Amino acid sequence: QVRLVESGGGLVQAGGSLRLSCAASGRTFGSYTIGWFRQAPGKERESVTAISRGGGNTDYADSVKGRFTISRDNAKNTVYLQMNSLKPEDTAVYYCAANSRTFYSRNSWARQREYDYWGQGTQVTVVS
């Protein structure tokens, strides 16, 4: 079992930055691919980024490339999402998720069904 808790969300002006954290319980955190997803009001949840268990592989949605950076500190059981140059369209509830079953794949990192543990989410609101 893995419990994920997101934090760091808030209200920020367009162009600003936020850093989200995803803290996990469990001794095998370092074995999991971790992904960030988001859901805007009235829209389906979408993939944002993911990182392999060792941190050597990352992928990003086109909408956030060059602005968001995912990283992880396995010693602290935490994954971070640094979000810069935020835009109003980044407003959403952000979720982190863990894939404990399969290895990282650039073909499947964005598939929500690959992830078997989910956090409760943290709200990010970007105002212009």
Task: Report on this structure.
Helix content is 0%, strand content 46%. The N and C termini lie far apart (40 Å). By secondary structure, it is an all-beta fold. It is globular and about 40 Å long. Strands 2, 4, 5, 6, 9, 10 and 11 form a seven-stranded mixed sheet that branches. Strands 1-3-8-7 form a four-stranded antiparallel sheet, with no helix packed on it. The protein has no helices and eleven strands.
Short description:
Helix content is 0%, strand content 46%. The chain is an all-beta fold and 128 residues long. The model has no long low-confidence stretch (mean pLDDT 96).
Unreliable parts: none
Hey, roughly how much beta strand do the residues contain? Answer: over 45%
Distance between the termini: 40 Å
The major pleated sheet works out as: 7 strands, mixed
List the secondary-structure elements in sequence, H or E: EEEEEEEEEEE
Report the radius of gyration as a whole number of Å. Answer: 13 Å
Give a count of the beta strands, DSSP E runs of length 2 or more: 11
* Oligomerization: single chain
Mean pLDDT: 96
Question: Can you give the helix content as a percent range?
Answer: under 10%
Shape: globular
User: Which class best fits the helix and strand makeup?
Assistant: mainly beta
State the helix count. 0
